[in-house]
Each structure stands twice: as structure tokens, then as C-alpha cells.
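thought: fold this chain, then report.
action: predict
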Amino acid sequence: MAATFHYLVPIDFTPVTENALVFALDAAKCNSGDIVLLHIISHAEERITAEKNLRDLAAKYQNQEVEISTRVVIGKVLRDIGLIAESIGVQLIIMGTHGISIWQKIFGSPALSVVSNSNVPIILTQKDTSFHKIKSIVMTVDLARESVQVIRYASRMAHIFNSKIYLVGKRYSDEIFMKKIEVNLKVANNYLQEHGLETNIQLLDENNFEKNLIEYCREVKANLLAATYYQDMFTIFSTSLIQSLVQNELSIPVMTFDGTDTSSGAQFGFITQ
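observation:
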């Protein structure tokens, strides 16, 4: 009997995070998963009110198909969500994101701070994101070999939902860059095919790449966009681009994973772990 797939949904009692719960419920129904609702408080005196509010929210959505449990923890939101997820053995965090303000663009998104402190992959949803059965996953691949790290999680999602994965790279005018892209796309494609998944490779022009990527997502009716995030590296998948992808106009959920801590070691060794 397969182990239950556990989802963690951080809740701050705003409509954005409640919508993330709705998304998680629909996802959990597809693979008989369960959900843990997490609210982090700063002081012990907040606990009684927080526990009541979290139980009320769980009761609002409780049904016989998906089990919902609740946890209230004293801690720091940006630091502790990932630690808690790992400690209780969840496979995926689904987190609602608020709009990106000018200050967040300058100093970094809180959502991405959570990503950088988590070893558990995260799906980021917008306030208007609704769940659609994940039949098409668009996964971005770039020059750095770390950009294919999210492939393990995209592969897992594809198996759960019987999805096709579309690998997307930038078509560079520089020949050396193109060779690097081609190697990374080949490695990713081989990995997916070895795991029995249907794939497709697409190169998009480097000019207006972000816009071209979203248009491609529209074309293939993407239900999930996957990209590795690494805050300490100067690459196309910098903080600013991931922020932009998370706020995409199609409200497609974005699955990401911090590849910074696992970027060392043998070439492409991380995707065989």
C-alpha cells in the first residue's frame, strides 16, 4: 500500500492563503492525500485564539475525502515553514502569495525567503489560482546545471497526475551558451524518459523570454510551471524572475525548490538522488 502524500498549507487567515487551501484540497483528492494547516505565532498568548481560528477554518473545508489536521507553532514564518514541513514529513508545501510590492522587489519576496529556507518543494499560488488537474507541466531549464534540480519534483508530480512535461530553454545567439542549454535539456529529457514520462523540448527566443514563456504556457494549456530557485547565483532564474513568474498573468501555480544548497558535487549527480 502506497504511503499517504502529505501537503502542508501555511495559513495567515487571509483570502490568499485560504485559496491555497482550496487548491491543496483539490490536489489531495487526486492522489488520496491529506493536509496539514500551519499557523505560526510569535508569542504563546496568541495560541488559544490561533488554534480556534485554525480549527474553524479546517471545519469549514473538512470532508470525507481529505483529512485536514492543524498545527499552531511559535516561531518565525520565513525561517520555520520549511523546517516544520521537513520535521513532520510532508512532501509538498502549497503556499499562497500576496502581491509583490515595490519594497519586496528591492529587498526580496517573503515567499522566496520561505523557499530559500526549505528542503521541501513549494507550489506558490496566487489569489486567483484555481486547481486544474495537472496534465501539462512546463519546466524551465537554463545554463546552470542547477536549473534542472527541480526535475525530481516535477517528475513526481507528473507521475501523480499522469502529466506531460514540456522542457523550455532559451535560444541564445551565443554558440557556447547554446551548447550548455542543449546539454541541460538533454540530461533533463533523458531523466524524464527513463522514468517513463512523456516529454517535449521547446526553445524560446532570448528576447522577451519571460513573455514568450508565459505565452508558451498559454499555448500548451500549462497547469503548473516549474523552475529551480537559487538566490545566491546570478542567472536567469534570479529572484526578480521567479517573482515575476509567480505573479504570471495566467495565475498558473509555480513549483520551485532552492537549488543553492545542493549545487555542489558531481555533474548532474543531484537528479539521481
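thought: worth noting. The longest strand covers residues 34-41.
final: C-alpha cells above.
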